Recover the amino acids of this structure.
């Protein structure tokens, strides 16, 4: 088995000490940092995304895999100029106003970061004006809204309206998710997409940005 395949396996198995040691060994052996990321760490995380979506992996396992991926990335970052760091796109994300649930959103963030997206996570209880401000400041391709309460999901519509009022709606795609959210709700409020889980959110953003 090649070192790249072994590194992918370590990520899939959430073995972060192993992933850290093998990443270091591969650096010491002179492997190209971008190849270590793309053919080792990301290759493993892609498998995790597929398995999670299929219900073959669960939240704690995905979190361990994301940790394994990031321990490797931390070692590689100093070796890669910012401009060369692979980025799949920029996404501003947050849990909407009045809502403090962030476990699912964090999972979305971890999976998307592992897939190479640059994520600006605003946190929880984010009002529409703060999303608008972040879009102006960061110019993301996508804005991700998470809600876990039937009462707070209405704030997603307010956020989309606020983007329209500021003339920003056409410059950014809006992706929404969270337990009470559905495709029909996304259609109703004029969002660009709905994702049921972290792996689907990653896939959807890839599609939207491509
Ligand atoms: Co809350 N809570 N909670 N809670 N809580 C729920 C959501 C609830 C369903 C429990 C219940 O009654 N059965 C219920 C909501 C009912 C409703 O609105 N219909 C509820 C309630 C009522 C409340 C309070 C009002 C309780 C109270 O105080 N009376 C209160 C509200 C606080 C507030 O937000 N203002 C409250 C508080 C809390 C805690 C703080 C104690 C805690 C949150 C801790 C935290 O997040 N840091 C909490 C928790 C943990 C839950 C449950 C038990 C678990 C949520 C969770 O983390 N799931 C939840 C019941 C349940 O779901 N079984 C419940 C695991 C997580 C991985 O899944 O978040 O669905 P999930 O994320 C998934 C997908 O939805 C999707 O991907 C994720 C990963 O696959 N996804 C996205 C999420 N965001 C996405 C964004 C995307 C795309 C996909 O694109 C941008």
């Amino acid at each position: 088995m090649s070192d790249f395949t072994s590194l992918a396996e370590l990520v899939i198995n959430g073995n972060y000490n192993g992933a850290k040691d093998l990443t270091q060994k591969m650096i010491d052996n002179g492997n190209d940092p971008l190849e270590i990321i793309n053919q080792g760490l990301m290759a493993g995380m892609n498998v995790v995304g597929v398995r999670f979506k299929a219900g073959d992996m669960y939240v704690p396992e995905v979190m361990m895999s994301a940790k394994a991926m990031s321990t490797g990335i931390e070692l590689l970052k100093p070796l890669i100029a910012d401009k060369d760091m692979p980025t799949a796109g920029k996404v501003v994300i947050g849990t909407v106003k009045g809502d403090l649930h962030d476990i699912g959103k964090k999972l979305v963030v971890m999976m998307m970061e592992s897939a190479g997206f640059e994520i600006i996570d605003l946190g929880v209880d984010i009002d529409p004006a703060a999303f608008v401000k972040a879009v102006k400041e960061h110019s993301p391709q996508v804005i991700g809204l998470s809600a876990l309460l039937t009462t707070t999901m209405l704030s997603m519509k307010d956020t989309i309206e606020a983007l329209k009022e500021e003339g920003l709606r056409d410059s950014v795609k809006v992706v929404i998710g969270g337990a009470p959210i559905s495709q029909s709700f996304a259609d109703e409020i004029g969002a660009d997409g709905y994702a049921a889980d972290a792996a689907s959110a990653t896939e959807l953003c890839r599609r939207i940005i491509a």
